Fold this protein.
Amino acid sequence: MSVEAVAAVLARHDHVSVVPHQQADADALGSAIGLATTVAADADTVLPDGLAQGGRRLADGLDVTLTDVDSWTPPSDTVVVAVDTPSTARLPGLDVGTVDAPLVVIDHHEPGDLSALATAEYRSTAAGATAALVPTVAAALDRPLPPTGAIGLAVGLYADTQGLAGAAKSELQCFGECVATAGSRAGEIPPLLRSRSPGFSRRMAGVKGVVRADGFRAGETLALVTTVGGEQSAVATALRSAGADYAFVVSDRDAETWVVGRSREETAPLQSVLDPLVERFGGQSGGHPEAAVAKLQTTETEAVRAAVRDHLATVLDESLTELS
């Protein structure tokens, strides 16, 4: 199904109920806000199970009205739009199969059971964020993005592409257009891209990442590989600052495993390590030679860590020795 099919369904209804996944992060909530503020119909944003830190920061910063699913009654002639989730498991408290309303799905993950339930679906697994898809829906509806929606989409896109390090060229353009659309409110965006206490939280994450890292060397080339739960970009930067020529941060992200990489300018491009991971585990990668990310379709983080070491050894054409 296509974006045109999604737009056709949305245009036929007087109300739109936008539902991000449970513990909505910045991409999920930003996509929901972007869509809810853009459609011509009345709209509400329904939370199935609270907000993650990035989503809470965005909600507080934009002062938007959110409805808990426990207190939500589907309005007449509504269409339910699930954003940034492929599965019913990520919508606790909302039985989409029993809601008397058509279902639309807008998502950038691999398809799940929501696809079979959807009246229309716009999915692009090549997109770095669901927020990158919403402007295309707005264009298909012939609706301009309002400043609030543009801010939400910019923050969501930034968050899910690792601070734009993993963004494709079109997504960088999309981010710039959202900033421009925010107009006089563009100054609201930078504070929403950071934690309320960025200094301590990032330093803490960096220290944990270094302490937990496995170190390797091949000649005079040093590599550090670690696993963390958040602040992946900050941790990768901390590993580089600790002296690593290559830094790889592995993290569990829902049904995926992400590998964030950083390297020195004169080293081999990170894609030479990350692309084989995509070939092995499935998924996608993007970014630049010295700053990139791979989003892998696996939850086996230890297998990914081992594969990072193996592929780096292949790239360096030299076996890696563990640092003691």
Observations:
- The mean pLDDT is 90.
- The two ends are 54 Å apart (CA to CA).
- The longest strand covers residues 246-253.
- The chain has twelve helices and 13 strands.
